[in-house]
Write a structure and sequence with these properties.
globular, 29% helix, disordered C terminus, alpha+beta, two-stranded antiparallel ribbon
């Protein structure tokens, strides 16, 4: 994964990751879709979560907050970061309906 550039096993297993949005239970949520070759270990998943968190809060996500997106109804600004309601879960965690209070960073999951 060229943009990750840490030279570890995550770099070799994760081919790409893309930010998007989708509706989940009536709410618009940010999504990171990763193309993963093989299975990530818990440590690898945590490393990827940490990297994606940085990108969504201060990297590419911050860039989106600063640029308007034109829609038929006017301009909108996208923000993937809300420190009060922030969580990152795997697709499996998101679909299990076993939601926890994930407002603190140590309890994060990832939608992938």
């Amino acid at each position: 994964m060229h943009w990750y550039d840490r030279g570890n096993s995550v770099d070799r297993k994760v081919f790409s990751a893309f930010m998007s949005v989708e509706e989940h239970n009536g709410e618009l949520v940010g999504v990171v879709t990763a193309n993963v070759h093989g299975q990530l270990t818990e440590d690898e998943l945590e490393d990827l979560r940490e990297y994606c968190t940085g990108q969504l809060s201060d990297g590419a996500g911050e860039s989106l907050e600063q640029r308007p997106i034109k829609t038929p109804d006017g301009e909108i600004y996208i923000s993937f970061w809300n420190s009060d309601k922030w969580f990152l879960q795997t697709e499996e965690e998101m679909n299990s309906d076993q939601f926890e209070d994930m407002t603190e960073e140590p309890d994060m999951g990832m939608t992938m």
